[in-house]
Amino acid sequence: MSGEQRENLTYPMFGQAVRELAQAVADDGYDPDIILSIARGGLFVAGGLGYALDVKNLHVMNVEFYTGVGKTLDMPVMLPPVPNVVDLSEKKVLIADDVADTGRTLKLVQEFCAEHVAEVRSAVIYEKSQSAVKCEYVWRRTDEWINFPWSVEPPVHTSGEAPKENKEAL
Prior knowledge:
By secondary structure, the protein is of the alpha/beta class. The chain has a single domain (6-147), classed as 3-Layer(aba) Sandwich (Rossmann fold), CATH 3.40.50.2020. Helix content is 26%, strand content 32%.
């Protein structure tokens, strides 16, 4: 993270980013059978790519790694329910996420898919230089902290609960 500089993604920019990512996938001739989103940030990306690429088969993989701003677990952990590998068998999979920061989450998901799928590629809005995974489709590269429009505001609570710390702004 470079000082206090921040990359600020707005919803209009997000729409542009997803369309440009989808165009890059299409221009590359990659025709995925499944889009596998990494929850939570990848849900938004996968949904947009699904519509733009006309792929209706979307799956979700929940992976926990970040526990706070700049704080991570020792290793990323898959949370249940884990996708059934039979559903991925011999398919062309496009993994979608919002950012490849360390790349460790993407690497875990790629390794999960590798033995079961025909081909796996990754699409992210942002990729950082330290990422262990170099994605095939990247909208922008940055080493700044990223403020995503869906996670920059604290959660809304109606039950009087204290809001949890915002973990998603990378």
